[in-house]
Amino acid sequence: MLNLHLTDRSALPAYMQLYTQMRDQIRSGGIPYGMRLPSVRSLMQQLGTSKTTVESAYHMLLTEGYAVSRPKSGIYAANPFGASQPAPPSAGTDRTLSGPLPKGPAEEAHRIDFRPSAVDAQLFPMRSWRKMLHDTLDRSGEKINKYGDPQGEYAFRTVLADYLRNSRCVVCVPEQIVVGTGIHYSVGILAKLFAGIGRIAFEEPGFAPVREHFNQYGFRIEPVPVTEKGISVEALEQSCAEAVYITPSHQFPTGSVMPYPERERLLRWAQTKNAYIIEDDYDGEFRYSVKPIPSLQGLDRDGRVIYIGTFSKVFTPALRMNYMVLPLTLVEKMNNVNYLFDGPSRIDQWAMQSFIEQGHWYRHIRRMRKTYGKKHHRFIGLIRDYLGEHVRITGHSAGLHIQLTVDTNRTSGILVERAAAEGVKVYDLQEMWMKPVPSERPQIYLGFGGVSEQQMEEGIVLLKKAWEGLWEEA
Amino acid sequence: MLNLHLTDRSALPAYMQLYTQMRDQIRSGGIPYGMRLPSVRSLMQQLGTSKTTVESAYHMLLTEGYAVSRPKSGIYAANPFGASQPAPPSAGTDRTLSGPLPKGPAEEAHRIDFRPSAVDAQLFPMRSWRKMLHDTLDRSGEKINKYGDPQGEYAFRTVLADYLRNSRCVVCVPEQIVVGTGIHYSVGILAKLFAGIGRIAFEEPGFAPVREHFNQYGFRIEPVPVTEKGISVEALEQSCAEAVYITPSHQFPTGSVMPYPERERLLRWAQTKNAYIIEDDYDGEFRYSVKPIPSLQGLDRDGRVIYIGTFSKVFTPALRMNYMVLPLTLVEKMNNVNYLFDGPSRIDQWAMQSFIEQGHWYRHIRRMRKTYGKKHHRFIGLIRDYLGEHVRITGHSAGLHIQLTVDTNRTSGILVERAAAEGVKVYDLQEMWMKPVPSERPQIYLGFGGVSEQQMEEGIVLLKKAWEGLWEEA
Ligand SMILES: Cc1ncc(COP(=O)(O)O)c(C=O)c1O
Ligand SMILES: Cc1ncc(COP(=O)(O)O)c(C=O)c1O
């Protein structure tokens, strides 16, 4: 007999008490999945309650999937998330990890994960950030109880505008900045501002989650090939796109950097076609062998560029904070139509403002640059030492990930698999293609931001072991 | 001669240096609006630079609105935000304040503001929240550098599910909860999940910003009258709506509470029509003279109700955190299509989880209930004392605002104006109508959450003074 009881002293009606108790026992395993549940009649007798009560509870269990009915047999306990259960809490979904559609059971844990979006675990400026939060709360006064500007705190945007000019040659006034919670937030706003635009060109391969998101909003996607100079402007000129999404500072995933002449040509395209360029500058702070090239936004004289930056690389993705710089025409459109949105916590915006104003920000970036510069150097060195002439390294002049072209006639899928068998996670470039085409040699991309130097070495040694039998014979 | 100079040692190209310097001087007032700017030729000479450089800089100033060109006369400095300047930084846009379209110059400051969305300035649990943030950061470990689940931290959602069951009779599993940054975040997700739905019914009058937002997403809005029992289910049954947005615990703005029989009838409508009910339970924690009625979500046996709650009332709107409970069918849809979104900071979610788990939350709510209960009592008392039989108070059995029907043949606009002339801000119910119809007697709504008891008394005394000459003669 199940352990169930109804009481008059609950705020919940009887059927809800019954439903909740049964559901909780099914969830906790007290009633195991697959167990046959008592008949309506026998529960009525056990609990001394009405038929409606029991039927209502069963109806809810069935609707929610905690029970399934087998005709002529009875009602059985079930796991509503049986087949399509979301990843368990600890897994931490990573959008760039498994492509745009992370689904299914959690990935097995890898000993070493060269995840491209990961950042260094030691670098978070714990002490100063805690102090900023503390001081900010202390000084907040009446503001702590009020709504702020949905576009972002004005004073914070002012500080951001200064930083962007100094550091990224982005030229803007605070009115052009929209503070958000991440790139999908920005895409959501652009989707509305782009009413009337039908086709958006995308780097191929490119950042699949953003492509997927625009697609969900009903835009037609035109894949445009990426060369070692970033998106092919020539191919773009042939397309019918009215907007283009690009990562010119360090193309995702190939890592190429768009040179100055291509930038000017791209801007001419936008001017001629009255098209918009979405410049995603996600890791532009980190450059190694290249001289800084001003952002497209800074070169733009016609208000065609939308610039998107993030705190996910230079600070932490856990904060969920980014920003978008709109050209003035779109600012006006936004103000006129009153787009409604909810950005990140005001408290975090105040804290970040102080963090920048008090110089912690620049110190932090210098520290990150130094650490990543060192890691980058070591990473390239290790790959050359262990994998030698069997791989070609590209896309390594900036950012936190690189691309490997591997000298084998096996597929990239096999390479990923063999690596996984040794406990090393590397990423298949194919997954970032909209319409994958087989490349002559398989391509893999790896991030070095989230691994220690020791893990790095261990990982590369294991990769050598994993791939050794696969090299193309000379 | 303007104070401008170009250098080779800047990261910015010459035209950008020139543009930036001129723009900054225009912004700061160094070059006043309306001042005639030097000709291209004279700037070339002054700076020893090329025609292209000067022309490019002027082109940018003109594009961005920092300069205007008057034919046959020259180029003049201008304020790009002249006419449509967004509200200045300190004003703090409040969405419920001036209706869905807050625009134009900042409102004059009122001495006493009965703003409906305001919360008590003294109640924010500064000490314990600071401690939660502190401890959370301390314990965060590796997680601080990683992306989380875009649907919200799983452990936080588990705690939320428990709270919702205990406190609001909302029955759900964590998989049904989507943590967001506010109601517009939730609306953004619903807009996608509602693909295929054409018409959404709305309370008339109702919460204009949400109505406006659904409208922007392309849904047809069907206004349905509100009675003293909430939305008229009878009228809804006559409509073609496939979904309805309602505030049954305390209708916004009229304040009516939907009784149990109407809830059951509404649920039957949804079941019959396969329609969705969006239940916005924004201030359901605060009840005065009414017994708690379980949320619609808790009564729903068919998975038709979407429940939305917020931390803006019981905690603070500055945090930008809310949550939505989806029926399982929509959870499945969401999982299958992989809707991409960015919720609030993980750190804030962890802190809120601890805040609830450690019992601060329940203590805080008890404290809020007590304070607001007291304020509510005093507010009603003051209105009765000073405005007496000239006004009728309704919608005061729950929440943080009430409705006044005023015994005068003047319009609500006049009442608001007269109040403003005495330095008191009250709110015109007309603004929350989609298609305003003149009511027999003008209606005003006022919040008491954000004013102290002293301000409250002062405000009501001033209202008496403001309206005294307007009473209808008996
Ligand atoms: C290409 C690209 N854009 C943007 C981002 C950052 O997005 P967010 O600001 O939402 O964290 C990433 C993160 O990995 C990325 O790889
Ligand atoms: C009717 C209604 N719904 C919802 C909200 C809360 O929205 P949010 O969670 O975005 O702060 C408010 C705030 O004033 C409101 O009045």
Q: What do these coordinates show?
A:
Two copies of one chain form a homodimer. An eight-stranded mixed β-sheet of chain A has the order 4-11-10-9-8-5-6-7. A four-stranded antiparallel β-sheet of chain A has the order 12-13-16-15, covered by helices on one side. Chain A has a two-stranded antiparallel sheet with strand order 1-2. With 474 residues, chain A is of the alpha/beta class. Chain A folds into three domains: 14-105, Arc Repressor Mutant, subunit A (Orthogonal Bundle), CATH 1.10.10.10; 126-361, Type I PLP-dependent aspartate aminotransferase-like (Major domain) (Aspartate Aminotransferase, domain 2), CATH 3.40.640.10; 364-473, Aspartate Aminotransferase, domain 1. Chain A starts with 13 loop residues before the first helix and ends in a 7-residue tail after the last helix. The first copy, chain A, has helices at 14-28, 40-47, 51-64, 126-139, 154-168, 183-193, 208-216, 233-238, 260-273, 296-299, 328-337, 346-357, 360-387, 412-421, 453-467; strands at residues 67-70, 74-77, 112-113, 177-180, 199-204, 220-227, 230-231, 243-246, 276-280, 305-310, 322-325, 391-394, 401-406, 424-425, 427-428, 443-447. Helices cover 39% and strands 14% of the residues of chain A. In chain A, α5 packs across α12 (346-357). Chain A is built from 15 helices and 16 strands. Bound molecules: pyridoxal-5'-phosphate (2 copies). Chains A, B: GO terms for molecular function: DNA binding; DNA-binding transcription factor activity; pyridoxal phosphate binding; transaminase activity. Chains A, B: Keywords: Aminotransferase, DNA-binding, Transcription, Transcription regulation, Transferase. Chains A, B: Its cofactor is pyridoxal 5'-phosphate. Chains A, B: Residues 12-80 form the HTH gntR-type domain.
